[in-house]
Amino acid sequence: MLFFLAGALALVGILSEGGTPSRLLLVAVLDFALGLAGFLAPWERLRPESPALLGLAGFAVLGLSTWSFGGVAAGTGPFLVLLYTWAALHFPRWILLAYAAPAGVAYLLPLILTHRPPEVLSSALVLLPVAVAIALLVEAQARHLREDRERLARIETWQSAMMSTLAHDVRSPLATLQIVLEELGENASPEDARVIGAGLRQATRIRRLADGLLDVQRIDSSGHLRLDRELTAAGPLVREAVSYTSGRDVTVRIEDDLKIYVDPQRFEQIVVNLVGNALRYGRPPVIVELTRDGGTDRLEIRDHGAGIPEALRPRLFGRFAVGGPDGIGLGLWIVRSLTEAHGGRVVAEARDPGVAMVVTFPAPEAQA
């Protein structure tokens, strides 16, 4: 794109009669040719440093452009700095230092050939060191960003493998545990049956959490999460989800006839994660409300604790954004991913006292 821009400016120079037309036409042709080479060359088959050859050719064309304008370097200087900056974003510093000699020749030679005065020639003593210094600073920052990106990619690969392994390793023993509990419950006393029933429900919950970890991996790999939506009574679904937590100090306020169009298992996971967080990090009472406003359903889970600092709320739902002794910071990220899969959004709103986690998603009529 730099070469295309330079070629267009060379054509403008012809129209303005600011230089030799035949030379400027040659400059434009060369710039457009270099631009096409940049787009069409099979760089992926060559060495990573191969595109740096375009920079060398670019310096030569810049020198020709200065000569064509009779030694006026007003356009050469900015493009020289831009070429250096482009190189700094893509190549190691040794290439930037190697560019110094050809860049100096491209800048000074046309000035010498056109017999420019010494004060004009001395401008190279300012321009070239500035261009090199800017390029080295940009190269250092770009290198740090690339290293950070590679490190994050390795961490995410490890995390994905860890969650996948954990989920698969948990599901097999859970299946055996459920079978054993079901057999024990067949001939158990009422009191034992109640305890065994609670154990079965928690085993089912753990299996769903394992499925949730697999969902995290699927979200990472494909960016999509398949939902099995159905029209569901909101009250029983939310109360069932709340029962997987301690259930104490939690008040559910939902109209009995309110129905929502969601994936019950995934929506249950949203409720469990948010209620669990409210009980763990906030203070009771925790109030769960689900209301409808036109075409939007609104789930609000509020605690009465110390609240969340305003500076933390924008990144609250990022992956590993908020960890602690009781978690690793995936819960709210999963909530956000599941909410977005339902076509909704989740935010944290300040209350006095406490905080409200608000999930909004389309009502059945709006989705229809």
TrEMBL record:
It is found in: Cell membrane. It comes from the Bacteria. PROSITE patterns: HIS_KIN (PS50109). One of its GO terms (biological process) is osmosensory signaling via phosphorelay pathway. It is an enzyme of class 2 (transferase). It holds the Pfam family HisKA. GO terms for cellular component: plasma membrane. One of its GO terms (molecular function) is ATP binding. It catalyses: ATP + protein L-histidine = ADP + protein N-phospho-L-histidine. Its EC number is 2.7.13.3. The keyword Hydrolase does not apply. Keywords: ATP-binding, Kinase, Membrane, Nucleotide-binding, Phosphoprotein, Transferase, Transmembrane, Transmembrane helix, Two-component regulatory system. Residues 165-365 form the Histidine kinase domain. The chain crosses the membrane at residues 26-43, 52-74, 94-113, 120-138. This is Sensor-like histidine kinase SenX3. The lineage of its organism: Bacteria, Bacillati, Actinomycetota, Actinomycetes, Micromonosporales.
